[in-house]
Amino acid sequence: MPEVLFRVDLNKPMEEQDTPGHNRWHPDIPATVSVNPGAVFRMECKDWTDGQVANNDDPSDIRDVNLNRVHVLSGPVWVNGAEPGDLLVVDILDIGALPQSEWGFNGIFAKENGGSFLVDHYSQAAKSIWDFHGIYTTSRHLPGVKFAGILHPGLIGTAPSHQLLDRWNRRESDLVATNPERMPPLANLPTPHSAVLGSLKGAEFDRIAREAARTVPPREHGGNCDIKNLSKGTRIYFPVYVNGAKLSMGDLHFSQGDGEVTFCGGIEMAGWLDLHVDVIKGGMAKYNIVNNPVFKPGPVEPRYTEYLVFEGISVHETTGQQLYMDAHVAYRNACLNAIEYLKTAMGFTGEQAYMLLGTAPVEGRIAGIVDIPNACCTLSIPTSIFDRDILPK
């Protein structure tokens, strides 16, 4: 087993760990450990909510989650010799659940606390608990379903420079200013409330807590991309913006459907990552990788071959308004069509079907985005995850 460089105690919040992690992005958050290029090491991670969700049938903890606390991240890891303009090469060698926590959760967030992709249709909190059986998972809250997971970090990225951080905060503040009372909000702006900033204390903590960006969205450095294909064997090329790169990670998922549509999406878990890192000097300019990471997926994923595919087009589902090439609405319609079908085929409630789309290895696609005025998106559900034949008869 690789050397464990970051350990977590599941009974302690992140700021009380022997080595605290962080839940904000800022270049001045100190690194917790340093490694040389070529190093192989293990990082343990708490679940993204820092242990706020319990293994029970009560969705009130999903309803009441403190979103200012998320995401708690392990790191930063300082990579010796990494400088701005380099590429940080990160190989995900292996991923697993912590042996004392072989379960995970999924939830629909209430509209007044984050919401979700289908928030106007499912505005109340709901929760499903998933038990792990080797590579498979089942849930007492979604009977008749079993599937293989594709474990991955929902969130992994390097630290921003001061200039990049300022750009993030400026553009997201401008967006919020267009509709400051919107619920859910258009973006989550910096707030000191529930900030965790590693070993920082005093005036320096206060300064960084006011400036640091929230971890909620993906950005140029990677971050919370929630790409299910970042699994075992994946190699990621991250732009480096600060000395040492300052790599951090967390938000581990046992499985997830494309889009992570319930927001508390995928099957969230505590676990560990085995990583290998290297540096390509001057790689950002050499390969023109300057705006976002690039990755090569690994060879490990569930081998499902038969799917039932649901389509959606860019016509508003309640008003009937014709929208122009709107892939967001088209994918929403594909999800809603799948939910209505599963309510009949499996006897699920809408909430159960919705949570299935967030957890199972469903495939989302932009099928067509040229035929005006309708974009077409598809959602493909593997049929063998069900204990019965769900095809129309």
In short:
This protein is of the alpha+beta class and 393 residues long. The protein has helices at residues 60-63, 162-177, 202-211, 283-287, 327-345, 350-359; strands spanning 3-6, 24-25, 33-35, 40-45, 73-79, 87-97, 103-108, 126-133, 136-139, 147-148, 152-157, 213-214, 218-219, 222-223, 235-239, 247-253, 263-268, 271-280, 294-296, 307-313, 363-368, 376-382. It is globular and about 60 Å long.
How do the strands and helices of this protein lay out in sequence?
Elements: E1 3-6, E2 24-25, E3 33-35, E4 40-45, H1 60-63, E5 73-79, E6 87-97, E7 103-108, E8 126-133, E9 136-139, E10 147-148, E11 152-157, H2 162-177, H3 202-211, E12 213-214, E13 218-219, E14 222-223, E15 235-239, E16 247-253, E17 263-268, E18 271-280, H4 283-287, E19 294-296, E20 307-313, H5 327-345, H6 350-359, E21 363-368, E22 376-382
Parallel strand pairs: 1-4, 3-5
Antiparallel strand pairs: 2-12, 4-18, 5-16, 6-15, 6-18, 7-8, 7-17, 8-9, 9-10, 11-14, 11-16, 13-14, 15-19, 20-22, 21-22
